[in-house]
Fold this sequence. Notes:
This protein is of the alpha+beta class. It has helices at 10-21, 30-39, 46-59, 81-93, 99-110, 115-122, 138-151, 236-241, 263-270, 294-302, 313-331, and strands at 63-67, 70-74, 153-164, 170-187, 190-197, 204-207, 211-220, 250-259, 275-279, 283-292, 307-311. The protein is built from eleven helices and eleven strands.
Amino acid sequence: MSKKPRQKLKLIYILEILKKYSDEENPLxxxxxxxxxxxxxxxxxxxxxYNDIACLEDYGCDIIKSExxxxxxxxxxxxxxxxxxxxxxxxxxxxxxxxxxxSELISKLNSMLSVNQVKRRxxxxxxxxxxxxxxxxxxxxxxxxxxxxxxGLQIKLVYSQRYFxxxxxxxxxxxxxxxxxxxxxxxxxxxxxxxNHTKYDNLIHLRLDRMSSVEILKxxxxxxxxxxxxxxxxxxxxxxNKLFGMHGGELANVEFCCNRAITEQVLDRFSEKIFxxxxxxxxxxxxxxxxxxxxxxxxIINYGSDLKVNSPDALREMVKERARTVLKNYES
Length: 332
């Protein structure tokens, strides 16, 4: 028997069969394992399966024996079942991953589950491919840009932005950009590169799904300390926390006065580390540093009378102007 073709691979295939087809609710007995081995071109008597299972257990494989129904199944996997489901859902919902790449990643994750565990989940999950990014380069651009950041090198790429032409059709305006890359961040369901355009002396952030033809150059990138307040290391969390919807603007200390009814929403947005200035029975005031942008105004307007800007005056005027514009739309 041991001299027959593929026989030396028997133990490996038994382990693969158990990983793929067995779980706590679906253990495999010796006869079933023998049948699966035959599909791989390996003949095996049922009695020999017992010794093979014992060998795999001696090696350290977590194979659990079930009495009802009789058989074996893999116990400890690299990830718990809920963890795999969670990762699969994250891949499905991430718009920056294309439909094709999503399917590939989910297939790899599902390979860590049994076929029955995959069926149990896949039949109850909706996958909207139309909501996914169409840029197939994005997955590889992340690797290229990460390498450029690690090695302190400049990158060159083509950046695309959409617009409507005279016939109301969506077109793409493309331009080549030379950048000094500093950090990658995932915000608001998009991947962003925080960088410096070589023509200017400030920080900008660009969406990776709009990038193509990314090329790592041999020229050293400009250090971020010359275009930002960061000196020793680039604080990505600090940078993104000051933005709303990844929209830039002039940084300022903003004082808010909030109804206590929106405490959870405020803490979700600014974290529990905000500087509270005053707390009363009905409201509390706090100060944060934020970029004055239209996205910030939108966030403020969203809470109506539950949220008020005390300062700065520039932001108060922006909110007033937005309120007047909205009101005007309903007066005619």
